[in-house]
């Protein structure tokens, strides 16, 4: 039976990388019934919302969703479609495996870590107001429920994937109450997983240690804002935003998307790198139980990038998105 998958092209390079990704995923031979969904700035300009109810309903009906990046205005306009999506569907866990890829030249060759980011609260609660002109307040919400849930997700992920260590990243030396609560929840959950080592590190030191020696980390669990920043730092360790996948997972629904944004500087030029979306699709195929297709997809990506002949410009090559897709399809044949 075909898997029902919603695909959301999104804005900027979104439609280009989505078209490329679907062509490669289909070439694995997996049976997927694709249904288009809309979200982002382009649909907002047409219908007045960046996340139509029909899209949400469609995602709920689907077995999984593959999403391209969507544009969010800075300092004005509607709330981010991503934040709205995560909140509406309670996609509480953001999963970002960060693994070195053969052929993608970076300072490190042995990065293999997972960033688990809490997705629903913290400073992303969207609670901001003007106290008096010239003074604004932005409220950070941390709850026992969400912190315990994300800690459990991180430890369960570690157990399922045979990982050895979970590190909670925090700033509890300054935010004693909020980050203190987050840490307390992580400690409590850690007691149920005696086979997994549990450590803690302050977020600024974590950034320093990550760029010095990323191999000392395994699974990182973070609140929303630290997770957002640290996951991009980690992307930089393995070759940048064009090669890192992501998944937003809830109890019921799961949305798979790349870490990168809409890349307005290269949109429409036909040179965007679809690898991140394809690696997100690898996570999606695993989620759908299509282990063989997932493995073949990763194998094809590693082969093509490892050979280093067909690389998009962000990885130092001159290949177009189409040329890269053809190389991947040939590697899958
Ligand atoms: P960005 O990720 O769009 O771009 C940063 C740099 O990385 C640019 O130089 C860009 O060309 C490059 N890049 C990103 N993805 C690439 C790819 N697949 N192939 C090749 N190069 C790539 O980040 P930004 O400029 O800060 O954000 C632009 C817009 O994207 C904003 O509107 C922001 O809100 C949105 N955004 C969306 C998401 C999402 O939907 N998940 C995530 C981050 C940013």
TrEMBL record:
Record GO biological process: isocitrate metabolic process; tricarboxylic acid cycle
The entry's keywords: Magnesium, Metal-binding, NAD, Oxidoreductase, Transit peptide
Pfam families in the record: Iso_dh
Recorded GO MF terms: isocitrate dehydrogenase (NAD+) activity; magnesium ion binding; NAD binding
Residue ranges of every copy of the Isopropylmalate dehydrogenase-like domain listed in the record: 4-328
Names of the cofactor(s): Mn(2+); Mg(2+)
Coiled-coil intervals, chain numbering: none
Highest rank taxon of the organism: Bacteria
PANTHER family xrefs: DECARBOXYLATING DEHYDROGENASES-ISOCITRATE, ISOPROPYLMALATE, TARTRATE, ISOCITRATE DEHYDROGENASE [NAD] SUBUNIT ALPHA, MITOCHONDRIAL
Family designation: Belongs to the isocitrate and isopropylmalate dehydrogenases family.
NCBIfam families in UniProt: mito_nad_idh (TIGR00175)
Protein name in the entry: Isocitrate dehydrogenase
Organism phylogeny: Bacteria, Pseudomonadati, Myxococcota, Myxococcia, Myxococcales
